[in-house]
């Protein structure tokens, strides 16, 4: 169970990281997938000591997700520095960032397609009685 402080810090980090990916680093990752990549911060979980932040990302319009995640990992120092500039008055230390791929949207889309493909035959008169 996360404390209220962890939840508040996680919400602030999610907001700030989202802005960093949308404003400051928009062109840093676009060339990797052949087009414009849309990176969304879906969730942030913070350790009890606020030293580690697990950041879950959703990558839209990305052809090679593994390569894009590697590029994000390589730029984690830059991302952490940009984050530090934003939260320097709220946090004593900037947490170490660990990035993970959040595939919840893709999983939901896959399940929707599976449910849409199910054919349920109409019940016969004998089965209704």
What does this structure look like?
It is found in: Cytoplasm. Keywords: Cytoplasm, Ribosome biogenesis. This is Ribosome-binding factor A. Belongs to the RbfA family. The chain is of the alpha+beta class. The chain has a single domain (4-103), classed as K homology (KH) domain (GMP Synthetase, Chain A, domain 3, 2-Layer Sandwich), CATH 3.30.300.20. 47% of the residues lie in helices and 19% in strands. The chain is built from five helices and three strands, in the order H-E-E-H-H-E-H-H. It has helices at residues 4-24, 65-74, 76-87, 104-116, 125-128; strands at 38-46, 52-60, 96-101. A hairpin with a 5-residue loop joins strand 1 and strand 2. Helix 1 (4-24) packs across helix 3 (76-87). The model has no long low-confidence stretch (mean pLDDT 86).
Rg over CA atoms: 20 Å
- The computed structural class is alpha+beta
CATH architecture: 2-Layer Sandwich
CATH class: Alpha Beta
Largest sheet: 3 strands, mixed
Strands of the biggest beta sheet: in what spatial order?
Answer: 1-2-3
Order of helix and strand elements from N to C terminus:
HEEHHEHH
Strand content: 15-25%
Q: Kindly state the percentage of residues in helix.
A: 40-55%
**Spans of at least 5 consecutive residues with low confidence:** none
- Total helical elements: 5
Distance between the termini: 50 Å
The tally of domains stands at 1
Main location: cytoplasm
GO biological process, one term: maturation of SSU-rRNA
Protein name: Ribosome-binding factor A
Keywords: Cytoplasm, Ribosome biogenesis
């Amino acid at each position: 169970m996360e404390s209220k402080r962890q939840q508040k810090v996680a919400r602030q980090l999610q907001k700030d990281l989202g802005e960093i990916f949308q404003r400051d680093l928009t062109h840093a990752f676009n060339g990797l997938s052949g087009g414009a990549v849309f990176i969304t911060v879906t969730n942030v979980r913070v350790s009890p000591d606020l030293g580690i932040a697990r950041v879950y990302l959703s990558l839209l319009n990305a052809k090679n997700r593994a390569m894009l995640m590697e590029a994000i990992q390589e730029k984690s120092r830059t991302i952490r520095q940009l984050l530090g500039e934003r939260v320097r008055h709220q946090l004593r230390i900037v947490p170490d960032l660990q990035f993970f791929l959040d595939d919840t949207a893709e999983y939901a889309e896959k399940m929707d397609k599976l449910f849409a493909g199910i054919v349920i035959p109409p019940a016969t008169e004998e089965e209704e009685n």
